[in-house]
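hi! just following up on the protien thing from before. the input was this:
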Amino acid sequence: MRKLITLFGIAPLLLSGCKVYSSKYKALLLVTTNNGNSATMSFEEFEGTYVFKLKKQNKGESDIKFAASLESGKINVEYYAFNNESNLFTISGGETLNDHSGYIEHGYKVSIIVTAEEKAINGHLTFNLD
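and the predicted 3d structure came back as:
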């Protein structure tokens, strides 16, 4: 009986754990910045996944503002916040985006997951939680 009680005591910790993301990529001329509530990424060539960790620092609520351009390839961007993963945008070669989406409250941490679905060439992405 004691083992059964211990098992139920551990299960909620496992079920309520946060998802952990890590970067794994191959790139040529990759330059990134990550300044608390904003991030940028520029590259000549990019394959794989890059993860930014941001935190909403200003009071109040906001969305995620983003801008992106890509010469060729395809990139999918998702964000993870409030124990939820959501698609932010997908960009294909020749496109330029400047938009906003999502919902973030003061003090919350956000992971932004950039994944090249196809080899990406000449790209620039910016993210801001203000």
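The longest strand covers residues 61-81.
The chain has one domain: 20-128.
cheers
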